[in-house]
Fold these 4 entries.
Entry 1:
Amino acid sequence: MNARHEITLVRHELKRRTLTVSRVEAITPLMRRIHFASDDLADFESLSPDDHVKLFFPSADGPVMRDYTPRAYSDQQRTLTIDFALHDAGHATQWAVNAQLGQTLQIGGPRGSKVVPDDFDWYLLVGDESGLPAIGRRVEELREGVPVITVVCIARAAEQQQFSTRAAWKPVWIERGTDSERDAERVLAALTDFVAPPGDGFVRVAGEASLAKAVRTYFIEQREHPRAWVRASGYWQRGKSDAHAELDE
């Protein structure tokens, strides 16, 4: 019998799939949601909101690869949804801005899923715009009534999102303006007022690497939160075009 709060790793067969754009939505001014459909998704699996797939964007010098979160998917309908944070002028942002119905894109993965059981007494999800797809998916998938607090740094109020959830969700939005270099400082200041609900809690941080590292260190070293119940990922690193990294080891 599995222990309570045990995080498990599930491996998936690595497979490349060709998808077709079926719908494009502007969720906020800086978040583009693109829906894909393909028979290739018949055996697609994504067991965790923290999963990422590799997207292959065409360029003159060959495909450019970037990691993205499966925001939602249906193996029965053979559809996949991916949210694109429009935070730079790179290949991924350019492709998302110009995406048209019927356009195709190749993806690979996910390679595996780290499955966090929905048996914690509360959840705290922290990040920036790049972490919102994973944060939103987890909020929507949590069980009825469980407390979940989200603390997310965004450019302005128009970037706030609404999630449909059965959980007891409390959002905290931190508006930074155009300067993102002090996001870690802003988030840590907001977290000084955080009062944990009773019981065991899971803390998940996803966003720019320095923000993720700072929040992880704060909870482990200052809050003395159990290390196994804090997970952090750097979805991007300031000054680098592709720097996804897990920070838990």
Entry 2:
Amino acid sequence: MGERKVYQKIKKDLSQAQIKIGRDQLFSILKANKMLIRKSVRHIHTTNSRHWYKKHPNLIREMVPESPNQLWVSDITYLQKERGFMYLSLITDAYSRKIVGYYIGDTLEASNTIKALRMALENTPNLMGGLIHHSDRGMQYCCYAYVKLLQDHNIKISMTEKGDPLENAIAERVNGILKQEYLDYKEVYDNQKLKEVIDYYNNERPHMSCNMLTPNDAHQKTGKLNRTWKNYYKNNNLVKQYQD
């Protein structure tokens, strides 16, 4: 995880051991030992929006959820293997940043995204009304089977409209966290192995967008969560959502 999260988790132990070290000094130590997170570059696209399925409007402009299960965001990302790719479908609660559903497969078939959605629904059996599901306009999310599953559970459907990643910023950010911090390059994952990674992410990684709570802890809260990052883009609400 990033340096600020590491510092948050170890500063109590440092104090008990009477070790005086600030965040900037920790950053320098990590940098000198090549232990900072390296940003990845996106090489391939997983979204095909050139299809004849119905595309739904964006319902979440300037929306800031104030409790769990008000807004789920979904996306697909790729993991590179020695030969070819694997494709990871994720569903994340926008309030708590908790991953509530996932599935990894060798193809971009809609059946994989449906399996991720079914997991999210099984993990949240007592859904209240008003939940919005937000995604890009890829055919996996627009196909009849996926839309019907959402409608059967009275979930409102929202989609990006301009193809800008910032329209689905939270989902994109969670993709990046998993790939940069937890998923080893070219290692082959199955859903059991992925479960260990996501359990660690949900239970151990504090989020600056959730008052430095882990996603599972934040998922037990309601009301506005304090953001612990500085906003350098006051006039861009989409950039605000992109922080972690």
Entry 3:
Amino acid sequence: MNAPAGRDRPAIVTISATYGAGSSVIGPDVAARLDVPYLERIVSHDLARAATVPPEGAAEEERGEGLWRRLFEALTTMPSIVGATMPQPDVGLATDEQVRDEVEATIRDTTRERGGVVVGRGATCFLSGDPRVLHVRLDGPRERRVEQAMRIEGIAHDEAERRLTEVDKTRAAYVRRFYGCDITDPKLYHLVIDSTFLPLDEAAAVIERAARASFASH
């Protein structure tokens, strides 16, 4: 399926999601439907690991070294963007701000000409107000997210519970630290979907239709 026609700009969709909401399945599906890149790993693993010391001013619950490391290692959990050029600064000099800046620069550069679907990475916040972008939130009741994570990842209930608590906390802390945003605030999003209620392919189809309708009206 081709991207929406009749525009001089490509489709850009950001997806913010709680753990178990199925973003790892829905994100690539939406990108394929809109014929735009799916942006995955944004910075190198080495660069992310170099930025593990919490800065002055970080909230108390964010100052533990383990949580701070997870904030940045969370950026490196998937393969790289196909065809993207991502120059990295000297990892010995890396700071948390450098990691954030690399993430933002890569997303902006890639989506400027090609569009894209971006899952997480604070994109909902730093691309807010951009009329080219549709912002989507995926969520659902905790227990249904646990069950869905078990199916998607092939893990046991206790492990899914553990990951849900940790991942949701890490994602919220990243967005709060760098952008001062409450990731759960519905005002950040054009579309909020309970993706534990709809089948994942149907949720992707809803986002596709919303994207095409939005871009056609602007």
Entry 4:
Amino acid sequence: MDLLLVEDDRLLGDGLSTALTREGYSVRWCQSASRARLAVREQAPAMMVLDLGLPGEDGLSLLKHWRKEGLTCPVLILTARDTADDKIAGLDTGADDFLTKPFDLGELCARLRALQRRHTTTNSQQLSLGRVTIDHERLIASLDGKPVDLTHLEFALLSTLARRPGHVFSRQTLEEALYEMDNSVSSNTLEVYIHHLRRKLHPECIRTVRGIGYALEPGS
């Protein structure tokens, strides 16, 4: 799971990055607010550990901005600020949990696992694949947390590919999925809608396997 660690303390950040990597997370570590903003723009994380006292901008300001922009991943605030007002401000701004320094590493990992379980249950109808999120309940796809306007056939094709991320679906299978939605599809419809998805999402989201079919890249 992609985890963004925003922590300016080099010693602590290095230790957390190593420990969380051992726990199975794919850790991206940022030491400033500007780097964190860039990292989120490049790829919305699946989870975040956020310090508040950052060079350039306070962590609460960052979190408020991200929530306003539609970032939905669980965020655990990790900070030396330990008053009740600090905790209330963090949770009201959009944090999912709050842990004060100094802390126990085992407790941090347990809290992250709990957040992951809670988020997975809450978003059981959502599938996150790198920069792309698919909400099957609301029939909405998002790129970097922002909704993308897809037609019903484009969403049907994306949903079919998302059933098995990384798996190469044959042309026939994908054409049949489109035909079930609209029996007037023509022989070149598949290529047209693959092109549309790449344009509306991003070019690397779908991989072409010549002579066989297409696959949705899980980490794209």
